[in-house]
């Protein structure tokens, strides 16, 4: 009986203790900077109690809740969530529940999940979420004052969501084990059934890349306008401690700018007050709050025509996620592959829309009533990018397109080589025929010259023969003349 009670109470108690410790850490993260700002603010009339109340109000905003202000400067509801603070609070929750998971020893090195591991983890996570949500509601009630009134019900709901998401992440984190020489490692996503583990890996890869693209774009813009931001910071003159608090505030708001930059790159429009619009088509800006990081934003005007090409930046992680999905599901059956192919763009689209929704809010009832992405302008281009990237990757990697293209290229290359060989053969035959004809013509020419030489010789000989004949004929035709002998030559021998 005692053992059973201890086994039931242990996860519940550990979840409650983890929630209390997490709440204390969260209060310290917001109240201590507020107290530091109050001490450093020499021109401020706020007391330490006011600083604590401000810290509690910021804590409610960090969980995604809302507060109602009536300060005269800002009147109305503030619902803009500092995503940096929310991410930090989720990290604290994850670390706390990871420790609980390790203490409960949910995973055995040799056998894997121990018996009742999931039940103990669920009990600890449930008690953690309930206590944490109630604690956030209590802190919201304690943070009420004449100028600010946190909304309790939204604070409880948002606190429960932060505790649930962060705590579940911590529990899954505690299940992971690194591989050793004797035991294989345990991956958290491998615990999901197929093909959803492949979808989770692909979506995680795509979302990480998209957040990285937004961070890169926001950081680049801040660096580009750092002179304007520095000038406004010097004009405010917050001092050392006040400057540190101002920097921490901007760091808490920096993830908002990252998400807004991502929305713009995805083809959506971001509003930073009434009459303002930031998109790839251009900037319509107005009077902005005196925050140094906002001074680094682009100036009003139309964007160049090539700005639309920037949509290729978020397309890269979407393609990489689709490639990872196709490779991880290649060995599965067709039904599972189709489920994964359909789930990937839908889950990615929903995740981006949730992230953009968290980055949407308002400050008061004035010009800053609407801040963040216009969801209507984001949905269509986001669907086109996610579905288009997935379809393109599937057309290339999951269909016979690549083998067909390779076969077509090989066939075309073979035909070209055959045609070239045939052409070379024809050229060789033509060249050989021309060579033979040339040699024949040369031989005929040489034979003609010999004949002509012989003919000329015969002609000369014939002419000489004719001349001799003519000479003989002329000799025969001439009459013989009598030879006269002198008388002295006839009678001279007698004298001797």
From TrEMBL:
InterPro entries: DUF6350. It comes from the Bacteria. The chain crosses the membrane at residues 12-36, 48-74, 80-100, 121-143, 155-177, 198-220, 240-265, 303-326, 338-359, 379-405. Residues 420-496 are annotated as: Disordered. Residues 420-429 have a biased composition (Basic and acidic residues). Residues 432-441 have a biased composition (Polar residues). This is Uncharacterized protein. The keyword Transmembrane helix applies. Keywords: Membrane, Transmembrane, Transmembrane helix. It holds the Pfam family DUF6350.
């Amino acid at each position: 009986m005692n053992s059973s009670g201890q086994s039931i109470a242990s996860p519940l108690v550990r979840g409650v203790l983890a929630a209390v410790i997490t709440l204390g850490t969260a209060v310290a993260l917001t109240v201590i900077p507020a107290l530091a700002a109050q001490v450093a603010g020499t021109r401020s009339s706020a007391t330490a109690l006011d600083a604590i109340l401000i810290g509690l109000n910021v804590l409610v905003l960090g969980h995604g809740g809302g507060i109602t202000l009536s300060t005269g400067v800002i009147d109305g509801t503030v619902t803009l969530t500092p995503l940096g603070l929310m991410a930090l609070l989720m990290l604290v929750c994850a670390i706390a529940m990871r420790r609980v998971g390790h203490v409960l020893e949910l995973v055995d090195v040799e056998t894997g999940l121990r018996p009742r591991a999931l039940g103990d983890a669920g009990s600890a996570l449930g008690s953690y979420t309930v206590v944490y949500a109630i604690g956030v509601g209590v802190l919201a009630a304690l943070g009420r004052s004449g100028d600010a009134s946190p909304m309790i019900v939204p604070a409880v709901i948002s606190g429960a969501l932060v505790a649930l998401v962060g705590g579940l992440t911590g529990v899954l984190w505690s299940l992971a084990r690194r591989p050793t020489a004797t035991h294989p490692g345990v991956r958290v996503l491998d615990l999901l059934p197929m093909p959803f583990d492949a979808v989770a890996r692909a979506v995680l890869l795509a979302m990480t890349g998209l957040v990285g693209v937004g961070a890169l774009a926001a950081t680049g813009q801040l660096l580009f306008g750092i002179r304007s931001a520095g000038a406004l910071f010097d004009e405010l003159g917050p001092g050392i401690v006040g400057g540190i608090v101002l920097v921490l505030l901007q760091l808490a708001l920096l993830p908002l700018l990252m998400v807004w930059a991502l929305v713009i790159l995805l083809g959506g429009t971001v509003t930073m007050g009434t009459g303002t619009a930031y998109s790839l088509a251009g900037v319509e800006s107005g009077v902005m709050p005196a925050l140094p990081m906002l001074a680094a934003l682009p100036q009003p005007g139309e964007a160049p025509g090539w700005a639309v090409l920037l949509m290729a930046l978020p397309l890269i992680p979407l393609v990489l996620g689709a490639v990872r999905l196709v490779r991880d599901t290649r060995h599965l059956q067709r039904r599972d592959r189709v489920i994964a192919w359909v789930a990937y763009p839908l889950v990615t689209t929903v995740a981006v829309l949730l992230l953009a929704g968290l980055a949407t809010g308002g400050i008061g009832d004035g010009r800053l009533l609407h801040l963040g992405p216009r969801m209507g302008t984001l949905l269509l281009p986001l669907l086109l990018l996610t579905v288009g990237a997935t379809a393109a990757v599937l057309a290339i990697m999951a269909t016979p397109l690549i083998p067909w293209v390779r076969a077509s290229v090989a066939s075309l290359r073979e035909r070209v080589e055959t045609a070239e060989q045939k052409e070379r053969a024809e050229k060789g035959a033509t060249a050989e025929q021309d060579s033979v004809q040339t040699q024949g013509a040369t031989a005929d020419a040489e034979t003609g010259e010999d004949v002509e030489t012989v003919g000329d010789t015969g002609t000369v000989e014939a002419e000489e023969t004719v001349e001799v004949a003519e000479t003989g004929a002329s000799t025969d035709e001439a009459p013989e003349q009598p030879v006269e002998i002198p008388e002295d030559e006839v009678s001279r021998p007698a004298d001797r």
